[in-house]
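Subject: for your reference before the review

Hello V.,

The reviewers asked for a structural picture of the protein, and I figured it would be easier to keep everything in one thread rather than splitting it across files. Below is the amino acid sequence we used in the manuscript, unchanged from the supplementary table.
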Amino acid sequence: MNEQVSVETPEQIDINFQQAGIGSRFYAALIDTVLLTLISLVGYYVNRRFISELGDVVGNWLGALGGIIVFAIFWGYYMVFEATTNGQTFGKLALGLRVIKDGGYPIGFADAAIRNLVRIVDFLPFFYGVGLLCMMLNRNWQRLGDLAAGTLVIKTTRTELKPTGTRSHVGNQSISIPPRELIYTAWIQLALVTETEFGVIREYLARRATLSGYRRSELARTIASPIVEKMGGTGSIGYNRFLEEVYMLKTAETTEGNTEKTDVRPDGSGANE
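And here is what came back from the structure prediction:
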């Protein structure tokens, strides 16, 4: 199995993801299916109670409404959760999986809608028979819904980020960060930021002024999400500001380290005098 998939963003930043295989995706789907089955059973029981307790006319109307609601929950569950929770359902969250665009960006509602409408075909003839066959024939383990929406399912751990291409050297490009209070220092752990990740952060901050607002926001989220995750960050995160603070703190740490390493002669004079 090819566990790694590499995508290059239009900004020429190469992002290597660990793909989710059939096993982990099967168990994630099983968790989601069990949850939805329980919801359906509760809905069926409530419908029967409506019909028996409220009479034929009112009971049937409310029962039909309940059936529509259960149907909407069953088919809308994947779309809503994947579009609003960074590509994760309860099953994917439990197994550490996430849906992303094949360009490395988070998915939107349209992407979630497409991949999950095609889920009906993937489910045939029973429990993802067509989807499993498609995944086995595809080197990126994509089912038909993934192919239609241009999405991948990845593991949220062991993600490697690195600059690539001819524009990957920031060189003399300046990084402009406005002076303001640091708000994420309480849980930023610089020791968890690898040199590769720091290089990507530096690359992004140096060139973000040339990007559109949407692309800048999406790229900042793509770069920052795995770093925030391993640091245990919670709540609403401003990814641009988070990357700025990591860069500032890391740069300050490096500067202090270089100062401490200045060569001093036994007589106390500096080596560079």
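For the response letter, the relevant points are probably these. DSSP finds ten helices and five strands in the chain. The first helix runs from residue 22 to 53.

Happy to draft the paragraph if you're swamped.

O.
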